[in-house]
Amino acid sequence: MVATPTTAKSSGPRFRRASEELREASGAGMAFSVGDPVERLQEEVSCSICLEYLRDPVTIECGHNFCQACISNYCERGAGSVAQVALCPQCRAGFLLSSSRPNKQLANIVEGIEQLALRPSRGPGEVLCERHGKKLRLFCQDDGEPICLVCDKSREHRAHTVLPIEEAAHEYKIKLREAVDVLRKVLGEASKLEAQEAEKTAQWKEKVEERRALIVSGYERRRQAMAEEEQLLLRQLQDEAQETLKKLQVNWAFLLGQCTRLRDLISEMEQKCQQPAASLLKDVKVALTRSVPYNLLLLLFSRLVVSDSVTPWTRAHQALLSSTASLSLVKLMLVASRTLSHHLVLCRPLLLVPSIFPNIRVFSRESSLLIITITYIAAHLLRNKTCCVNWGLLPRI
C-alpha cells in the first residue's frame, strides 16, 4: 500500500499538536511522569532501525517513518536492490523504496523536540541514560554498565549479553555482600593484630623504661662508688705523700751527715798526705780502712735498683734512699755482726738476705753478694772499736 498525501497530512497535525502541548507544558514548568506523552512522543520520532531520532525522515507506503539512510540500507540488505519490493520493519507490509516520500513536517517536529531537550520526569534517585534520556532497564555484562532499551538495540550492544537491571542488581548485591563478609573477617583479624601490636608496643615501652632506670641507677651507684674510691685514694695519696716527704727529709739529713763525715775524712786524708813520711805512714792503714766501707756503699747504692713493675709510690718506699733502707743500713750491719758468724755468711748468703733486708723486694745475685760483703766487713770492723768510731758506726766517747 502506497502512502497517500492524506496520510502524511493527517500525521502532520497530530505531531504538531503534540509538540505544541509539550511546549506549553515545558513553558509552564510541568513535570512529566513515566506515563506522560513525552516518552511516547520520543518513541514516535525515533527510527525503529537505528533507535535514534529520525534523520531526514521518509514515509513509506504503510505510513511508518524511518531515516532515509536506514531504510535504504535495509532495502539493500533485505531485498538485494532498492528497486525490489521490501517488507516494512514494523508491520511487514510490502513497499517500494521509490514510493517513499520525505516528511518535512516530521523533521521539523524532531528538530523542535531536540531543541526543547525534553526528558521524562525521573523519580528520586533515578538515573537516566545520558545518551537517549531513557530509563536504565538493562545491564550489559560485557561492558559492565546499565543501559536503556534503545542502547540494547544499537549496534554497540547488539551482540552483548544483557540482563534485566533488577536481576543484575540482585546478583551483584549477593556478590557485594559476600565480598563485605570476607572484608569483615579480614577487618576482624586486622583488629586483633592491631590490638596485639598495641599491647606489645606498651610492653616494650615499659621494658625500655625499666632498662633505662636500671642503667641510670647502676651508673649512679658506680659514680658514687668511684667518687668514694677517688676520695679514698686521694686521702691515701696525701698520707703517703706526707709520710714519704718526712722520710725524704730524714734521708736528706742522713745524707747531709754522711757528706759532712766524708768531707772531714777527705780533709784528714788530704792533711795526712801533706805530712812528712814518718807521720804519713803512722796509722795509714787505719785511714785507708775508713774509706773502704764508703766505696762499698757507693757501689751498693748504684747496683740496688728496684723493678719497674713496682708502682711509683711503692718504689719510693722501697728505694735505698728511703728510711727503711738507708737509715737502718748501719743498724742492720750491727745486728748482723751480733747474729751472724763467718761460717753462716759464707754458706747461706742468699737465704739470709731477705730476712736481713725485709723491705727490699727485688734482689739480684750480685746485689745480694754486695750486701753480704758489707755485712761481713762490718762484722770484722766491729772488733776494733776505734775503727768503728772513725767510720761512724759508733759514737765518739
UniProtKB/TrEMBL annotation:
<feature type="domain" description="RING-type">
    <location>
        <begin position="47"/>
        <end position="92"/>
    </location>
</feature>
<protein>
    <submittedName>
        <fullName>E3 ubiquitin-protein ligase TRIM58-like</fullName>
    </submittedName>
</protein>
<dbReference type="GO" id="GO:0008270">
    <property type="term" value="F:zinc ion binding"/>
</dbReference>
<dbReference type="InterPro" id="IPR050143">
    <property type="entry name" value="TRIM/RBCC"/>
</dbReference>
<keyword id="KW-0479">Metal-binding</keyword>
<dbReference type="InterPro" id="IPR001841">
    <property type="entry name" value="Znf_RING"/>
</dbReference>
<dbReference type="InterPro" id="IPR017907">
    <property type="entry name" value="Znf_RING_CS"/>
</dbReference>
<feature type="region of interest" description="Disordered">
    <location>
        <begin position="1"/>
        <end position="20"/>
    </location>
</feature>
<dbReference type="Pfam" id="PF15227">
    <property type="entry name" value="zf-C3HC4_4"/>
</dbReference>
<dbReference type="InterPro" id="IPR000315">
    <property type="entry name" value="Znf_B-box"/>
</dbReference>
<feature type="compositionally biased region" description="Polar residues">
    <location>
        <begin position="1"/>
        <end position="10"/>
    </location>
</feature>
<keyword id="KW-0862">Zinc</keyword>
<feature type="domain" description="B box-type">
    <location>
        <begin position="124"/>
        <end position="165"/>
    </location>
</feature>
<dbReference type="InterPro" id="IPR013083">
    <property type="entry name" value="Znf_RING/FYVE/PHD"/>
</dbReference>
<dbReference type="Pfam" id="PF00643">
    <property type="entry name" value="zf-B_box"/>
</dbReference>
<keyword id="KW-0863">Zinc-finger</keyword>
